[in-house]
């Protein structure tokens, strides 16, 4: 087309007649002409057609920033634990070993809190154990998400806690999930143990931890990470029911058990949702069966018509035999 318009010796009518077949052929095709748009394939440097179906990439700097924010904010809670542990009668060595080997703040607080209240150490340990069972469920999800090498999994399992799970699940890709898990776990582990040591050493100087409000930093950060992830009505219903169960059983059950009871909110909501869907499907099936029954009546009438036709043929055959 460009060559024909560039040649003045070809009349306009002949040029149009020459170009018309190719133009009509291009108009009949499903896509644009070759060399234009998507039919020519993706241009160099342009995103592919299915780029919208893939999760949006998140810069590493943003992942590191979020992970450091969570690690630092929650890591400061080690001050409160160090002070509480020292006040409950544990030695400096026992307090530090507990943070190094257990490394799950809620279970550690439950243990030293029960001991400070004069409870049996075995009962306190049992409550801390029940409270830490939730990390096993976190591990089931993170094992699929992170897909770490086998030799790394035993070390990574020690960092499977609320904060690392929340940061990992908030990432769009496996690579950023691994980065968020590593940065959060490393920052929190180092800072938690350091502040535990400082809190145990300066227990008398710090005084009452409730006045500082340090113990509320961990739950506040966890809720801030969890709230944006509750996008559907089902997720919000699970979260609301879990809160009601946890708070309702908190005064009557040992430490750690209300958290396990709250975990029953997920299967309960899913069961109710599945039952509601089943009722709707059953109602639609019942209405469909009614229409099928009407169709069965029609089939019966069709059968009667076929019977009458057969009788008529028999009578016609008998009549012909008599005429013969």
What is this entry, summarized?
By secondary structure, the protein is an all-alpha fold. The chain is 73% helix and 0% strand. The radius of gyration is 36 Å and the shape is elongated.
Largest sheet: none
The value of Rg in angstroms is 36 Å
Low-confidence stretches: 1-53, 291-303
User: H/E element string?
Assistant: HHHHHHHHHHHHHHHHH
Which structural class do you get from the secondary structure elements? mainly alpha
Amino- and carboxy-terminal Cα gap: 84 Å
> For the residues shown, what is the average pLDDT?
75
Number of helices: 17
Measured by DSSP, the beta-strand proportion falls in under 5%
Extended strand count: 0
Query: Roughly how much helix do the residues carry, as a percent range?
Result: over 70%
Outline: elongated
Give a written overview of the molecule:
The structure is a single chain. This protein is an all-alpha fold. Helices cover 73% and strands 0% of the residues. It has 17 helices and no strands. α3 runs parallel beside α11 and α4 packs parallel to α11. The protein is elongated and about 125 Å long. The N terminus is likely disordered.
Main traits of this protein?
324 residues, mainly alpha, 17 helices
Secondary structure elements and their pairing?
Layout: H1 2-5, H2 12-28, H3 60-75, H4 78-87, H5 92-101, H6 105-116, H7 121-132, H8 134-146, H9 153-157, H10 162-169, H11 174-201, H12 203-206, H13 209-212, H14 217-226, H15 233-249, H16 257-262, H17 265-323
């Amino acid at each position: 087309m460009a060559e024909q318009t560039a040649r003045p010796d070809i009349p306009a009518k002949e040029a149009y007649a020459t170009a018309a077949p190719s133009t009509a052929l291009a108009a009949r095709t499903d896509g644009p002409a070759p060399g234009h748009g998507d039919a020519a394939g993706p241009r160099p440097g342009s995103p592919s057609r299915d780029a919208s179906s893939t999760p949006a990439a998140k810069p590493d700097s943003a992942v590191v920033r979020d992970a450091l924010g969570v690690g630092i904010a929650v890591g400061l809670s080690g001050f409160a634990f160090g002070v509480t542990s020292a006040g409950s009668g544990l030695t400096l060595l026992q307090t530090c070993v507990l943070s190094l080997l257990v490394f799950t703040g809620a279970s550690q607080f439950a243990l030293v809190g029960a001991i400070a209240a004069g409870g049996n150490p075995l009962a306190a340990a049992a409550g801390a154990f029940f409270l830490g069972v939730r990390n096993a469920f976190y591990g089931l999800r993170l094992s699929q998400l992170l897909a770490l090498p086998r030799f790394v999994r035993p070390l990574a399992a020690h960092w499977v806690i609320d904060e690392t799970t929340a940061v990992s699940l908030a990432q769009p890709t496996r690579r950023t999930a691994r980065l968020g898990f590593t940065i959060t776990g490393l920052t929190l582990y180092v800072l938690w143990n350091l502040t535990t040591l400082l809190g145990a050493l300066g227990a008398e100087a710090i005084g009452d931890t409730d006045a500082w409000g340090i113990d509320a930093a961990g739950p506040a950060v966890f809720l801030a990470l969890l709230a944006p992830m509750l996008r559907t009505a089902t997720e919000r219903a699970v979260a609301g029911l879990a809160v009601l169960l946890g708070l309702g059983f908190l005064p009557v059950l040992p430490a750690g058990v209300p958290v396990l009871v709250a975990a029953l909110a997920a299967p309960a909501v899913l069961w109710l949702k599945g039952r509601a869907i089943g009722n709707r499907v059953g109602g639609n099936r019942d209405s469909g069966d009614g229409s099928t029954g009407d169709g069965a009546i029609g089939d019966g009438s069709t059968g009667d018509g076929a019977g009458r036709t057969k009788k008529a043929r028999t009578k016609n055959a008998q009549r012909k035999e008599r005429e013969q």
